[in-house]
Amino acid sequence: MKARIAEKIRSARTIAVSSHVRPDADSIGSGLALFLMLRQLGKDPAYINVDRVPYPVSKLPGCERIRCGQIHPQPFDLVVLIEGNSEERTGQKRLQDYSRVHIDHHVSGGDDGPAISWVVPGAAAVGELIYELGLELGVEFTRDIAFNLYAAIASDTGSFKYSNTTPASLAIAADLARRGGFPPFEVSDLLFNSNSREKVRMLTRVLSTLETDLDGRLAMIHFRRDFLDRLSLKDIETEDIIAIARSIDGVQVLLFFKEIEEDYFRVSIRSRGGVFARQIALAFHGGGHPHAAGFFYRGSLESAKKEISRLVAAQFR
Ligand SMILES: [Mn+2]
């Protein structure tokens, strides 16, 4: 599939790259690396997203090149979608008439019609796939390309700590650090050592909601919209909070409830061992990876907790 995608890229001149809404370091690092590769190949690329890039991901090299808005109706020979192939995921409307390529490591639900799809669920990050595509295209891995791809992989693997980390992730990261000539610490410093005071305050607020159930195997935390009062934050970065709560000894499942509006929550599930987060998410029409999944829930926080923990308990049996 990657050979076919490389061929598509070679035969195109104007190429739009886009990543999903609420972009993270994997989709942005991957998109920027691809954008820089396309420029190196003499193409005329544009990187267009619906949402702005959050801090500190916005410090990745080349981020100022990302434009905000819709791809349609500008003409492009090819549109490359990173981690999302539907209007719901990308926020991009009316892409059906474009020649499209979709590169992802999530098995997604809906898609918007025909596109060449390269989906590798075993890849820890899309960054790994863009790295392979770069090799296929024969590009030079400059410092910025390598840095962005390393950041993509470091982010989705939680600095190579999560269960999705494979020997391939480590080998690719090592190769990127070598080719790019940067110390890996520079990436961790940029992504993980740049919390604002407000963010840490938010973290303590959310962590103070911690509850455990099912003999300490289930942990639950939540965020309410009014937690943002008196803080200058517009939104919360959830991965760090989730990582701390799931690290509790004995916890096999972590549920994080984020209030979107009254009685409407985004639920993130993390699991380990023989408990499968995705199975729980599917029961609520969500999706994701086996051990990291999510869905939306309409109802009160109390009923959500009750309903979901019942399903979790069923998996323990
Ligand atoms: Mn990813």
Please supply descriptive tags for the structure shown above.
317 residues; alpha/beta; inorganic pyrophosphatase (n-terminal core); 2 domains; 6-stranded parallel β-sheet; globular; binds manganese (II) ion
Describe what this molecule looks like in 3D.
With about 325 residues, this protein is α/β, with parallel strands linked by helices. About 40% of the residues lie in helices and about 20% in strands. It is built from 11 helices and 12 strands. A 6-stranded parallel sheet has the order 3-2-1-4-5-6. The chain has a 6-stranded mixed sheet with strand order 7-8-9-10-12-11, with helices on both faces. Strand 8 (about 220-225), helix 9 (about 240-245) and strand 9 (about 255-260) form a beta-alpha-beta unit. Helix 1 (about 1-10) packs across helix 4 (about 125-135). The protein is globular. About 40% of the residues are buried. The model has no long low-confidence stretch (mean pLDDT about 95). Bound molecules: manganese (II) ion (MN). Manganese (II) ion binds near residues 105 and 125.
